[in-house]
Fold this sequence. Notes:
By secondary structure, this protein is mainly β.
Amino acid sequence: MPRRPLPTGFGAASSRAALALSLVLGGVSLAPLESGAASPPSTPPTGVNDTAGERRVAEAAAALRVPDAGDVRGDITLPRRGAHGTTVSWRSEESRVVNPAGEVNRPEHGADPISVELTATVRLGPHRAERRFRLTVPPLPERNPEKGYLFTYFTGAGTADGEQVHFAASRGDDALAWDELNGGEPVLTSTKGEGGVRDPFIVRSPEGDKFYLIATDLRMHGDGNWDEVQRHGSRHIEVWESTDLVHWSEQRHVRVAPDNAGNVWAPEAYYDESIGAYVVFWASKLYDADDPDHSEDTHNRMMYATTRDFHTFGEPRIWQDPGHSVIDSTVVSEDGTYYRFTKDERANSDAAPCDKYITEEKSPNLRSTDYTFVADCIGEAEGSEPGISRGEGPTVFESNSGDKWYMFIDEFGGRGYVPFETTDLDSGEWTMSENYDLPDSPRHGTVLPVTADELQRLRAEYGTGTSG
């Protein structure tokens, strides 16, 4: 089934229609600083005359954008720097709804949407341009309990469409019983970057009514070379967004990694309330500055960058570097503690007996670089307890009943995902689940708890294919 277009009023087209521009000098209002106004924070380059300065601030103002201005559901990024070395300041006609820092306070559920005008002032020396944006802020949604689950995943490099985004829906509220959606065919297909996507991860916004799906830009089907794609692979992630899980935006191809990165693998995100932004994290091999060809050996580290809107990202930082390769981190939180689960990527040796299995750590600070060890070798068979031969791509989620946690671990080269469970995250003890029925060949992905209405909508839109 092809991807359905967004409904009217959502996305880039409606955002452009929502812009209110002063119709002076090509749509941008230009004015010198008034007498007595504060000095601008920057001065124009030497030799810039009045005409050139006016043109530059006009171009910088025209280049500004506020994504999804017609449907603002969370905090937004308002840039402070513009093109040509300009600075940008913002003012709002309704700061209690959208303030100049881009923080959004939506009306209560059941109230009317609120229209807010933002004005950007672009400065370069004595030159100034203004651009106005009309934003629409909808009321908060009604929050309903989760009564089912959505599973997003890829199926492997063995088929031409295996490295695309597949969906499955739980049978009611059973996290261990699934039906493939869309006849087992991909729901989202990459048309950018490498043309394939792996490791799809979906996150719900803190407001509850927006979803971001991000994935690795990678295609190994055919003649993919694992060494090459870690030296000269993509530095981008692929992004889709939705407000209802069935209407999806156009794909965005967004760079997040620095120049010395050889790859960006398995991006995930977690909302950090302490900074009001998502922390997006992934694995990258980083090469030394004196190795521009990325020819030397190095290892994967976990990196992160922050974003409010999955359009604009902060500077990438190293999050986890134990001195050897680690990949595929995922995070959950409980009672103020963040639990991080990561694949140990080392080759088996006496020094690394838990290679190719999952390590659990914890911290009170999501972005900490000093997590405390909880357990390793998670997934490995022990005594009479069953397990997997090796594992990666853990996805961890709490049951909707709140009585246990699940961890699905991808037994790569084997069965694909295998479910484990625990009643105590702090124990580090995980037991393989019994009597499970997963989709056919699910690989690294995400399980997202959904409401009964969301589950019904997914099944109605995409239909069911086959059970696992």
